[in-house]
Design goal:
The complex is a heterodimer of chains A (about 120) and B (about 280). Chain A is mainly α. Chain A is built from 4 helices and 1 strand; from the N terminus they run αβααα. In chain A, helix 2 packs across helix 3 and helix 3 runs antiparallel to helix 4. The radius of gyration of chain A is 18 Å and the shape is elongated. By secondary structure, chain B is mostly helical. Chain B has one domain. Helix content of chain B is about 70%, strand content about 5%. In chain B, a hairpin with a 4-residue loop joins strand 2 and strand 3. The chains are: A mainly alpha (about 120), B mainly alpha (about 280). Chains A and B meet through helix 1, strand 1, helix 3 and helix 4 of A and strand 1, helix 1, helix 3, helix 4 and helix 10 of B. Strand 1 of chain A pairs antiparallel with strand 1 of chain B, so a sheet runs across the interface.
């Protein structure tokens, strides 16, 4: 089987990631309005804030709460998590691709980006 | 202050629409509007930054598959924009908003490069020989240009200057929650000598990554509100899709006039906010 090009792989990651994320956001907005009975955004609503010191732990939390007790806050938080995962997975895919094509120069370059992003995602 | 889902979705749609028409990222428009609606500046920045991933990735996916994006150049330059954005977002959390308003206004001014660019017809680099570092990085590209009706080949030069320069672009993007697309395109064209289409497409691609890097800092800061960010994401993405549909139908003169008036209005508004904020 012919290996797909990096461009194709990245293109699909971006489209699928952003589309699913926006669907979650839209669903979350509808849940919000039906749940609250108003379209007003309350910036003092504590439940609506993302508090992620470790992104991957937060991601597992959010998936858990969407599965057990879906609310506007968890559905929209999952949408944002998917949104942030999209470019992240694009870097992961690039590392894998350059490793398979034995372009070690670019394995190092993409790994530097991946390590910095990962460190900043978990170290707060 | 009364903030409303419908109002935020519609204004973000307008910002995304206008942004993609005039080539100014949606963030640069939506942030000043959010502050007009009463959202604190830092919160407007943090929530707009995360939604930039959505608005940039839509068009980025199309450009990547059309091979307009130079993926290798993007990967190399992202090392620098990611560092810049993480540092920039951290600065934003620490400094008083008053200074951020002025910085925002100053940075918007760099977008005037976009007008100069639209007026001149750029051609790919033929006169500069590729240096050793850029060649070592395998920085070259080929794409099919529909308006020229032929393949365009180009070689990137001066990657050792372009990289660090992109750190400044990343820093500004992270601080202000914007893509800093005009600034990135300027570096791609003036320093790296990329042809215009490859330069726009690659800049757009990098914006998604820079936005992620800034967001890694903002999600820990307690500034990201899911309802606000969700409303902006949905509105801005739909708006920018509408804008890119309409773009081919509009004359360059109309776009330039629209661009100038929007830009000048935003600059005045941010300076005013900076002067009047405590």
């Amino acid at each position: 089987m012919k290996r797909p090009s990096l461009e194709e792989v990245i293109g699909y990651i971006l489209v699928i990631g952003v589309t699913t994320s926006l669907i979650m956001e839209f669903a979350g907005l509808i849940l919000y309005v039906t749940d609250k009975g108003t379209t007003e955004i309350d910036l003092g609503d504590f439940e609506a804030y993302v508090r992620s010191q470790d992104f991957f732990a937060y991601m597992i939390d959010v998936v858990g709460s969407v599965l057990s007790n879906p609310s506007y806050a968890s559905v929209m938080a999952l949408g944002l998590v998917l949104l942030m995962l999209t470019p992240y997975l694009r870097v992961v895919a690039s590392v894998v691709y350059f490793t398979l094509s034995r372009n070690y120069k670019y394995v190092v370059i993409t790994l530097i980006v991946l390590v910095m992003l990962t460190a900043s995602l978990i170290a707060h | 202050m009364y903030l409303d889902v419908v109002v935020v979705v519609l204004t973000s749609m307008f910002a995304g629409f206008l942004g993609s028409l005039i080539g100014l990222g949606g963030g640069a428009i939506v942030i000043p509007i959010l502050t007009l609606l009463g959202v604190p500046l830092k919160q407007a920045i943090a929530n707009s930054m995360i939604t930039l991933i959505a608005t940039s990735s839509g068009s980025a996916s199309a450009y990547v598959r059309e091979r307009l994006t130079n993926v290798k150049a993007a990967m190399y330059l992202e090392i620098f924009t990611v560092i810049g954005a993480i540092v920039g977002a951290t600065i934003t959390i620490l400094v008083p908003s008053k200074y951020l308003y002025f910085f925002f206004a100053a940075f918007l001014s760099s977008s005037f490069y976009g007008i100069k660019r639209k007026m001149s017809v750029s051609t790919p680099n033929h006169e500069m020989a590729q240096d050793r570092f850029s060649r070592w990085l395998e920085l070259e590209g080929t794409y099919y240009d529909e308006s020229l009706g032929k393949e365009v080949n180009y070689k990137i030069v001066r990657a050792h200057i372009g990289g660090p320069a992109m750190m400044i672009a990343g820093l500004a993007a992270g601080m202000l929650g914007i893509g800093a697309g005009a600034f990135k395109v300027a570096i791609h064209e003036l320093v790296l000598k990329m042809p215009p289409k490859a330069s726009s497409a690659t800049s757009n691609f990098i914006i998604g990554m820079t936005a992620l890097a800034g967001s890694t800092v903002f999600i820990a800061s307690g500034l990201v509100n899911v309802v606000l960010a969700g409303s902006i994401a949905v509105g801005a993405t739909v708006g920018s899709m509408m804008g890119s549909r309409l773009l081919p139908k509009m004359s360059d003169k109309t776009i330039r006039l629209l661009f100038l008036s929007v830009l000048i209005y935003l600059i005045i508004q941010m300076v005013y906010k900076g002067v009047t904020s405590p």
